[in-house]
């Protein structure tokens, strides 16, 4: 099979799940006739019709609310945020209605809320967000943020079949930049499992989404200097795969966390606590992080490039850590 | 209209209203004895609304109560013990003590969605319920309530607009009890009748005396029928008065005394008792039998609640996620699934836009020209469904990689065959 982009892999997951199960429906802004702002849902309406592919008004609270109501009757709606930044418009529905439903009164909400996320495309302060940590901090949700076409397809399928609400972040920088051959047959990737992308012995680099590729690039550069970094792709941020993280730290004794989210309150802080609780005595150096700055995402290219982590910043941090 | 009600049904309405009132009366006493661990809200003087509206529903229909709609839960089949135990945070409550008040529901049997405290959010949720019901062929109606205060929220607007656009079978009961906490309705909304809001959504509405249970029932019955026939949603404004403060802690001293006096003379239960007597639907004996039954049931359920244990502390850790098969999720299909699966579901995905958005006069000409074989636009904007002559391939178009390799796709402008590759560093078109 030919290699496919991440965007195409996501599209395939939706097509296949809607083909498999008539309870799967999709709703969002411009997802039907237009095929979505990024064309992720292109062709869905033609194949599945307007009852299953619903062009919604610009009303994120209504979109998520309607998805909740549908899920209460046993449907499995996939709601799209045209840009994940706009999830702020329905924060109440997501954190109060959706996330607490099962805990409060035993009503599962089997919905997926997906959308293009992340920076690096000069989207500016309102089209570049990485808002995952608002939701990682919300019990009741699951949060997925894949980095490869293979994982995006397999994880989205798992998310659609999951009985819990899953927030599925799609890094728009990766949509068309990476391609991968996918298995010919049916497959899923389990939620809640990290994966080792590169074996190494000198330090562990933990990352996800676009920064996973940055971390691999940095690891390749470090290898030329004789530093062998192990690179782990978290894939799911909630629930966090503590076992894989701790096992790697126990092996390499040094941990560098790289994320595109801003620094304060980013997942690096949480992982640092997990490692201190579970592998403190295995550490030979300070837990280190490379993150975006604590600012909104700026628009102009030199500003955004300064704001974002990159391979050079990761290499510099890794070199320093490796010296311990 | 009301003559369609049998004697039994007339007595039912009384039973549920009085049960609602006596149940809440007992809870006030429990509150004062510190046996209710959280807040207590009163629907005193508003009982005709939850009872009259919910009574118009069939068992297959869905509702989502607000805080002053305990009567609707009773009509839907929940028991006083559910309300007592919820307020007393007992392990035997429907939420096992995880939430209080009327914040509980039942997806499978009573088709009741639990509210959250944030106002307005139930409207899009119940719209989704109605949409799913239609999709599954269930022919259900979804009903929920909103207050005069809650009608100012964004969720109210977003939800009602979506419901209107979808022609969802949603009955929205706008319970105008004159006060949003301490603020009178005139200070919140510059409208005499909140039902006027319906016009902005292109849906029908009516205004009803919320203290007349038969009027409430009748209007609700009509609204449910309209929705069932596919002519929803419907907004019903019921005018009433909140006869207590926002909650137990609030003595409502901000309400003019004369206003209380005015509405006290219009107490819904007293009015209905008078109606039943004047129309010889009951006699003193029947009333005392019903009242005795209510006392008996409440005695029993209150005792049950008071004797129930509080939950074990460790329960706090459980149930965040639906896992290990704790729920089976299966839609109740009442239509052939094939109807929503390809090839039957497939359509030509294009918009047709009637009259192009032209002003009225020009629109008439466009219509005329269309009728005489012009552009053929006859439907309102919606994807055109037509017999499936050529179902799209399973994964149409770019399944095997994209021809137009697009190294750089700025947000919102996907490859249209001619995606502009990244030109001089960092340059891109402006939207």
Structure overview:
- Chain A has two domains: 4-180, Thiamin diphosphate (ThDP)-binding fold, Pyr/PP domains (Rossmann fold, 3-Layer(aba) Sandwich), CATH 3.40.50.970; 195-322, 3-Layer(aba) Sandwich (Rossmann fold), CATH 3.40.50.920.
- In chain A, 38% of the residues lie in helices and 19% in strands.
- Chain A has eleven helices and 14 strands.
- Chain A has helices at 6-20, 44-48, 60-72, 91-105, 132-136, 149-161, 210-224, 242-252, 267-279, 301-307, 311-322, and strands spanning 4-5, 24-28, 53-55, 76-80, 112-117, 142-144, 166-171, 179-180, 195-198, 203-207, 229-233, 236-238, 255-262, 288-292.
- In chain A, helix 2 links the parallel strand 2 (24-28) and strand 3 (53-55).
- Chain A is globular and about 60 Å long.
- The model of chain A has no long low-confidence stretch (mean pLDDT 97).
- Chain B has two domains: 2-317, Thiamin diphosphate (ThDP)-binding fold, Pyr/PP domains (Rossmann fold); 337-391, no CATH class.
- In chain B, the strands form three sheets. In chain B, strands 1-2-3-7-6 form a five-stranded parallel sheet, with helices on both faces. In chain B, strands 4-5 form a two-stranded antiparallel ribbon.
- In chain B, helix 6 links the parallel strand 2 and strand 3 (170-176).
- In chain B, helix 1 packs across helix 11 and helix 2 runs parallel beside helix 8 (213-228).
- The interface between A and B is large, with 85 and 85 residues.
């Amino acid at each position: 099979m030919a290699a496919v982009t991440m965007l195409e892999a996501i599209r395939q997951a939706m097509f296949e799940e809607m083909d498999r199960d008539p309870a799967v429906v999709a709703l969002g802004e411009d997802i039907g006739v237009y095929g979505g702002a990024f064309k992720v849902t292109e062709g869905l309406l033609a194949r599945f019709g307007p009852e299953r592919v619903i062009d919604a008004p610009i009303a994120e609270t209504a979109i998520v609310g309607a998805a909740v109501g549908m899920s209460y009757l046993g449907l499995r709606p996939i709601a799209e945020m045209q840009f994940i930044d706009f999830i702020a418009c329905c924060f109440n529905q997501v954190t109060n209605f959706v996330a607490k439903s099962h805990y409060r009164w035993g009503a599962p909400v089997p919905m997926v809320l997906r959308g293009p996320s992340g920076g690096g495309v000069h989207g500016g302060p309102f089209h570049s967000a990485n808002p995952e940590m608002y939701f990682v901090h919300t019990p009741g949700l699951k949060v997925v943020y894949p980095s490869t076409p293979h994982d995006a397809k397999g994880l989205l399928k798992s998310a659609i079949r999951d009985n819990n609400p899953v927030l599925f972040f799609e890094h728009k920088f990766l949509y068309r930049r990476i391609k991968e051959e996918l298995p010919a047959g049916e497959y899923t990737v389990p939620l809640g499992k990290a994966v080792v992308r590169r074996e190494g012995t000198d330090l562990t680099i933990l990352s996800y989404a676009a920064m996973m590729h940055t971390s691999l690039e940095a690891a390749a550069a470090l290898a030329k200097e004789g530093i062998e970094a192990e690179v782990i792709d978290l894939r799911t941020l909630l629930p966090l795969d503590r076992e894989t993280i701790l096992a790697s730290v126990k092996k390499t004794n040094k941990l560098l966390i790289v994320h595109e989210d801003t620094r304060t309150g980013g997942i690096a802080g949480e992982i640092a606590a997990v490692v201190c609780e579970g592998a403190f005595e295995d550490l030979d150096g300070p837990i280190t992080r490379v993150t975006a700055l604590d600012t909104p995402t700026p628009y102009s290219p030199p500003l955004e490039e300064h704001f974002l982590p990159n391979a050079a910043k990761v290499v510099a941090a890794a070199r320093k850590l490796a010296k311990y | 209209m009301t003559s369609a009600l049998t004697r039994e049904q007339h007595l039912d309405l009384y039973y549920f209203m009085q049960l609602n009132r006596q149940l809440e009366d007992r809870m006030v006493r429990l509150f004062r004895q510190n046996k209710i661990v959280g807040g207590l809200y009163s629907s005193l003087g508003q009982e005709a609304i939850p009872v009259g509206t919910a009574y118009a529903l069939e068992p297959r229909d869905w509702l989502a109560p607000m805080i002053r709609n305990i009567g609707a839960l009773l009509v839907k089949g929940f028991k006083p013990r559910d309300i007592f135990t919820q307020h007393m945070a007992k392990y035997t409550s429907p939420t096992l003590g995880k939430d209080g008040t009327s914040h509980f529901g039942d997806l499978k049997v009573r088709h009741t969605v639990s509210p959250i405290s944030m106002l307005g959010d139930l409207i899009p949720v119940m719209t989704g319920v109605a949409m799913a019901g239609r999709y599954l062929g269930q022919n259900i109606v979804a009903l929920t309530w909103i207050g005069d205060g809650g009608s100012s929220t964004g969720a109210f607007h977003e939800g009602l607009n979506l419901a209107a656009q979808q022609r969802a079978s949603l009955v929205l009961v706008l319970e105008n009890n004159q006060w949003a906490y301490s603020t009178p309705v005139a200070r919140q909304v510059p409208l005499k009748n909140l039902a006027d809001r319906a016009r902005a959504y292109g849906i029908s509405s009516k205004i009803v005396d919320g203290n007349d249970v038969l009027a409430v029932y009748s209007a609700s019955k009509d609204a449910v029928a309209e929705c069932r026939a596919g002519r929803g949603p419907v907004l019903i404004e019921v005018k009433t008065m909140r006869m207590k403060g926002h909650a137990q802690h609030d003595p409502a001293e901000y309400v003019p005394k004369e206003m209380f006096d005015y509405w006290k003379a219009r107490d819904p239960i007293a009015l209905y008792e008078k109606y039943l007597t004047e129309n010889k639907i009951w006699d003193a004996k029947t009333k005392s039998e019903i009242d005795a039954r209510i006392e008996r049931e409440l005695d029993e359920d209150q005792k049950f609640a008071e004797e129930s244990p509080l939950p074990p502390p460790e329960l706090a850790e459980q149930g965040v996620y639906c896992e290990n098969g704790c729920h089976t999720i299966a839609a109740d299909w009442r239509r052939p699934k094939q109807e929503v699966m390809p090839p039957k579901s497939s359509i030509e995905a294009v918009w047709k836009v009637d009259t192009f958005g032209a002003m009225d006069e020009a629109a008439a000409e466009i219509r005329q020209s269309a009728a005489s074989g012009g552009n053929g636009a006859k439907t309102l904007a919606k994807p055109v469904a037509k017999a499936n002559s050529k179902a799209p391939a399973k994964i149409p178009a770019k399944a095997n990689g994209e021809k137009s390799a697009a190294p750089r796709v700025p947000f919102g402008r996907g490859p249209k065959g001619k995606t502009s590759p990244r030109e001089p560093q960092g340059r891109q078109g402006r939207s």
